[in-house]
Amino acid sequence: MTYKINYEIEFFSNWHLGSGLAISADVDAATLKDDHGLPYVPGKTLKGILKDAASLLAENAYKGIDKAFVDRIFGINDKDADAQESSLKHYQAQAYFSNAYLSEQLANWLTNENVGNQTKLFQRYSSTAIDQETGIAVDKSLRTIEVCIPISLYGTIDNLQSKEDVEKMKLVLVAVKKMGQNRHRGLGRLELKKI
């Protein structure tokens, strides 16, 4: 028997997960969007953020979270290939992390009943570098990114093997407090929780 966690990512501030693309001449980085122009968090991104949080908890031996749990749930990176080959254990990730999307009700409302309103989910955020000696903006340092307003997204973590793994993953979820670009400058503050 396997277990599943349904989770919510509730953002408290504007946030940006980049697509790697520019929108126009005046916006340097676009927010990642699905086929309907709605923001989402890729499962791959979430897995990496959760693995970092779990690894930090394991380093501190927090409530039974250890390296074996992290390796079992998230797998081993290529850099750990030697350790993987020398072990008899299978270290492919057990858990599957879905993409996190807006609630189905909100997504339908935005894409079917109010077509074009998806653009209201996004704003522009500009920053510039300041010369430390003069206190004046550095020439050609203005950068503008598209950010998403604070909203909630929902996803699942599937294929957890025990109730103990579920309890440990709940601890990992609440350990994540920020996500995305400029998270050390006020963007991407969040709460991740099991629902």
The gyration radius over C-alpha positions equals 19 Å
Largest sheet: 4 strands, antiparallel
| Weakly predicted, low-confidence segments | none
Structural class, please?
alpha+beta
Compressed to H and E, one letter per element, the order equals EHHHEHEEEHE
Coarse shape: globular
Rounded to the nearest angstrom, the distance between the terminal CA atoms is 20 Å
Q: Summarize the amount of helix as a percent range.
A: 25-40%
Name the average pLDDT: 89
Q: How is the quaternary structure best described?
A: single chain
Number of domains: 1
Count of individual helical segments = 5
How many beta strands in the DSSP annotation?
6
- Measured by DSSP, the beta-strand proportion falls in 15-25%
Strand order of the largest sheet: 2-5-1-6
InterPro entries: CRISPR_Csm3_endoribonuclease, RAMP_III_fam
Keywords: Antiviral defense
GO biological process, one term: defense response to virus
Domain CRISPR type III-associated protein: 9-191
Describe this structure in words.
The radius of gyration is 19 Å and the shape is globular. The strands form two sheets. Strands 2-5-1-6 form a four-stranded antiparallel beta sheet. With 195 residues, the chain is of the alpha+beta class. It has five helices and six strands. The chain has one domain.
How are the secondary structure elements laid out?
Layout: E1 3-11, H1 43-59, H2 67-74, H3 81-86, E2 96-97, H4 104-113, E3 122-127, E4 143-148, E5 152-160, H5 163-175, E6 190-194
Antiparallel strand pairs: 1-5, 1-6, 2-5, 3-4
Helix pairs in contact: 1-2, 1-5
